[in-house]
Amino acid sequence: MSKVKIGIIGGSGLNKPGILEGGTEKVVQTPFGPPSDVLIEGQISGVDCVLLARHGREHTINPSSINYRANIWALKDVGCTHVIVSSATGSLQEDIKPGDLVIVDSFIDRTFKRENTFYDGSPNSPFKDVVHMPMEPAFCSKTRSLLLETARDLGLPVHEGGSVVTIEGPRFSSKAESNVFRLQGASLVNMTLVPEVCLAREAGLLYAAVAMATDYDCWRCGVVNVVEVLKNLRANAKKVEKLFLAVIPKIAEQNWDNELKCMKDMLKYSNQTQISKLSDAELEVL
Ligand SMILES: CSC[C@H]1O[C@H](OP(=O)(O)O)[C@H](O)[C@@H]1O
Ligand SMILES: Nc1ncnc2[nH]cnc12
Questions:
Q1: Is 190 near ligand 2, meaning CB less than 6 Å away?
Q2: How many other C-beta atoms lie within 10 A of the C-beta of residue 59?
Q3: pLDDT in the model for residue 121
């Protein structure tokens, strides 16, 4: 049974190095440049964990400028098997109230200026192959189930699933955009889930996200503003913290060998450069 190590990416307002016992800072370099900040390695209930502030510890990096590739690479490089993340989101549905948590199950990508793959063939990329990864299920189902069960046990207001539209930002959506996302059936809107979730898949990491609704996007509330978002986050951040503290020992009790093997296989079956070289007979037995 593989030992787990859990990466935690703290989003807006949810970046508390204090949740780790014996936290030590580690500077990591990656082939894609530096991650958003130092990694903080430590333990939660005896389980190895690594904390990374998505926007930097002083919140100085905007969503488009986050080096998502470096962040995910760094967590993989220090041996993480799992990544659990928090994200502040606008609600697109009446029944998802500010303060509620959603264990996200899919996404709609409305970003347009981000590096979204390790396999880009660029001179500094260690990967030259062309890879087309599946994104269903986009998030690790078993980790999601544990998050959901734990949130319910803790009595937190939680929704079992929902899809997030990730916009490029840094501006919020217009009312027309917000209404289009609702017509598309999306539950939430944020600025950071993509390409983080996609890169985690390429890196073979078991990734799950807890979205915290901080506002009803402008379709309902008229104007979204950062003051309201942050007030809400401060009032509700404890919920995500409690959830992460409680779920981590549960994750560590499970055997993840199957899930980790599935991730490796998924990469193997997605590498068109390598698959193209196979004969018909080899392809048949793949
Ligand atoms: C302060 S609202 C905009 C900001 O909040 C979210 O950040 P994160 O996902 O890191 O919690 C959202 O995606 C935007 O980046
Ligand atoms: N309404 C909203 N739109 C985009 N990102 C957000 N993060 C928090 N609220 C948001």
A1: yes
A2: 15
A3: 81
Q: Which residues contact 68 (CB under 8 A, 6 or more apart)?
A: 114, 115, 116, 195, 196, 199
pLDDT over 90 at 68, yes or no: yes
Q: How far apart are CA 178 and CA 64, in angstroms?
A: 19
Residue 88 Cα to ligand 2 midpoint, Å, equals: 6
Q: Which atom of ligand 1 is nearest to the CA of 54?
A: 10
Q: Is the ipTM of this complex over 0.90?
A: yes
Residue 215 annotated to the active site: yes
Catalytic residue among 217, 257, 265, 280: 217
Query: CA 165, CA 194: separation in Å to the nearest integer?
Result: 9
- In eight-state DSSP terms, residue 17 is G
Beta strand residue intervals within 71-142, DSSP E: 82-91, 101-103, 106-110
Going from the Cα of 63 to the center of ligand 2, the distance in angstroms, rounded, reads 11
Residues in the annotated binding site for substrate? 191, 215-217
Is 37 an annotated catalytic residue? no
User: Alpha helices, DSSP H only, in 18-91?
Assistant: 68-77
Distance separating alpha carbons of residues 144 and 140, to the nearest angstrom: 6
Instruction: Give, using CA atoms, the residue closest to atom 8 of ligand 2.
Output: 89
Q: Is the CB of 88 under 6 A from ligand 2?
A: yes
Distance CA 108, CA 22 (A): 38
Please give the C-alpha separations between residue 167 and each of 2, 89, 112, 181, in angstroms, as whole numbers: 36, 11, 9, 10
Counting from 1 in the atom list of ligand 2, the atom nearest the Cα of 87 is: 7
Q: Report pLDDT digits (tens) over 119-155.
A: 998 777 888 899 999 999 999 999 999 999 999 999 9
Q: What does R_g of the chain's alpha carbons equal in angstroms? A: 19
